[in-house]
Amino acid sequence: MNEIANRCERLHIERAMKNLKKNNIESYVVETKDAVMPLVKTLITEGDVVGFGGSVTLKEVGFFDFIKNGNYELLDRDKKGLTREESQDINRQIFFSDAYFASANAITEHGEIYEVDGNGNRVAAITFGPKKVILIVGRNKIVKNLRDAVERVKNIACPANTMRLKIGTICNSTGYCVNGGKCDERHLMCAAPGSCPNSICSFSNVIAAQTSSNQDRIKIIIVNEDLGY
After folding, report:
1. b or e along 170-206 (b: 16 or more beta carbons within 10 Å of the residue's beta carbon)?
2. Across the strands, what pairs with 148?
3. Whose CA is closest to 139, among 17, 4, 26, 18?
4. Which numeric CATH code is attached to 3-143+212-223?
5. Domain map of the chain by residue range?
6. How far apart are CA 135 and CA 147, in angstroms?
7. Residue 140 main-chain phi, psi, to 5 deg
8. ∠ CA 27-227-144, rounded to 5°
9. DSSP per-residue letters across the chain
10. Using only C-alpha atoms, what is the Rg of the chain?
11. Which of 49, 136, 125, 133 minimizes the C-alpha distance to 88?
């Protein structure tokens, strides 16, 4: 990306960070994905029990190698050989973890976090449970408002993830939500009732702010590069 385009992207990031701060959500910006894990090391403590939600971004920044090679206890819900029941049990254990890592589906310039999930475990853990939540987000997930956040998920994140996970939704084959990805004033979620039985966007959550008594719980690391979907 050339210098001028990069400067424009940085303005969007700075606007989002300014409003996140007003909403009692602390955020950091790093220029490259290689700078993420050194920052993470300062935000967690050796010996922490660590959980995570499904995320391409976490793989891209080297999260798993860092945690597995460090002095941390990883609650690995994706460990090979686990049954679905065993994986779900780990998802429940994650509610009592010291630190939970995930990405966000979108961050608005208004200072809001938008999360979408197929099973609900990720949005639930981000909302309540783990002592600390650290979200790692590429600049491509900064959007102007919540409507743009929804449309981003419906037309970018969900189609890409259904392809990655080999889930047979309409967006898997078209690249858009069932109605062409258009969210009107009456139906912000785009899809008509019952139109997508294999949906991976069944649960959604908007974090508008943290209370002052709980303002240290969720932290966001914004990377000035495109990461994830």
Report:
1. bbbeeebbbeebebeeeeeebbeeeebeebbbebbbe
2. none
3. 17
4. 3.40.50
5. 3-143+212-223
6. 21
7. -65, -10
8. 60
9. --HHHHHHHHHHHHHHHHHHHHTT-EEEEESSGGGHHHHHHHHS-TT-EEEE---HHHHHTTHHHHHHTTT-EE--TT-TT--HHHHHHHHHHGGG-SEEEE--SEEETTS-EEEEESSSHHHHHHHSSSSEEEEEEEGGGEESSHHHHHHHIIIIIHHHHHHHHT---HHHHHSS-TTTT---SS-TT-SPTTS-TT-S--EEEEE----GGGTTSEEEEEESS----
10. 17
11. 125
The structure tokens 């922490």 sit at: 48
Angstrom distances, CA of residue 22 to CA of 1, 33, 165, 219: 30, 26, 37, 13
Residue environment code for 30-47, b if the CB has 16+ CB neighbours within 10 A, otherwise e: beebebbbebbeeebeee
Q: Which amino acid is at 34?
A: D
Looking up tokens 């996970």, which residue turns up?
Answer: 165
pTM recorded for the entire structure: 0.91
Retrieve residue 89's tokens: 């049990």
Query: Splitting the chain (229 residues) into consecutive groups of 10 residues, what average pLDDT does each group show?
Result: 79 96 97 97 97 96 96 95 94 97 97 94 96 97 94 88 85 77 62 76 92 93 96
Residues facing 117 on adjacent strands? 203
What are residue 203's phi and psi, to 5 degrees?
-120, 130
Q: Alpha-carbon distance 193 to 150, whole Å?
A: 17
